[in-house]
Prior knowledge:
Elements: H1 4-15, E1 17-23, E2 28-38, E3 41-52, H2 56-63, H3 68-87, E4 92-97, H4 99-103, H5 107-117, E5 123-124, H6 127-138, E6 147-153, E7 158-164, E8 167-174, H7 178-182, H8 188-202, E9 209-214, H9 216-225, E10 232-235, H10 236-248, H11 251-258, H12 262-265, H13 268-282, E11 286-289, H14 294-306
Parallel strand pairs: 1-4, 4-5, 6-9, 9-11
Antiparallel strand pairs: 1-2, 2-3, 6-7, 7-8, 10-11
Helix pairs in contact: 6-14, 8-13, 9-13, 10-13
Amino acid sequence: MFTDNYLNQTIYFMKKKFAVIDIGSNAIRFEISAFVAENGTPIFKRHEYIRFPLRLGQDVFSISRISEEKEEKFLRLIQVFKDLMGLYEVEAHIACATSAMRESENGKLIVSRVAKEIGIDIEVIDGDREAYLINKGIERFIDKRKNMIHIDVGGGSTEINIYSKGIKTAAHSFQLGTVRSLKGKSKQKETEHLKNWIQENTAKLKGVFCAIGTGGNINKMSELVIQKTKIATISLKELKNIYQVLNQLNLRDRILHYNFHEDRADVIVPAAQIYITAMEAAQAQKITVPKVGLREGMLYALYEEHL
């Protein structure tokens, strides 16, 4: 039976709404959530979620800067997010931008414009900070009895974290990404770097490795294998089959056969390649997909800071 104190505490947390803006290379995600405490563990209650396909990496990985057209659209989008935060009476927010904004020649100017004209401060994070935030989102899924490799594939970069019995032993950010790959900017040399780095750091640890995957593409691939569940597991063989099937289809057929959005249909194949490469390097035969990532880590960071 719920006590009055428990219900009052729940209502207290539910009134405190937080927002995150995840500015990636392939899309921009926005979420407003409230927190409910259960035995001291925060649980998110989502109120609003928007994924907008503004592909900043398309410009940056081609011309090294964000075009004026996309810059103006970006500012309009951030203004919409700010208006929604006002309507929902959001108490605190966090906005993080990853590799596309980080590598853009005019990224700092755009971030400055947003702060001045809209009043939203954007943190342009490096690979270490990105890995730290993602880790906050997935840490409850790390099995402390096993060796694990975490693979997060984004539009502009791939983050790899290696764990032994729950302790992180190595981490690195690689300039391998799905949008970067479409633009021919993901070099074979960086792929070899990823493979060699994983092999070197996993060889130091005894025992088999299990993989955990985050990112929109691995989430979507998991739905092709099994029903939509909170946590999915895909074998390396199944992942290779998915890659082969999707790689044989053109963009139009991927959209028609699997109901993908256009900005998912073109990047899902290079994403599958990166996950397979990383799993093979670690000799991991299965990958768990908890369907959490940077956005959830940002929410946990807000929770720790304000509550």
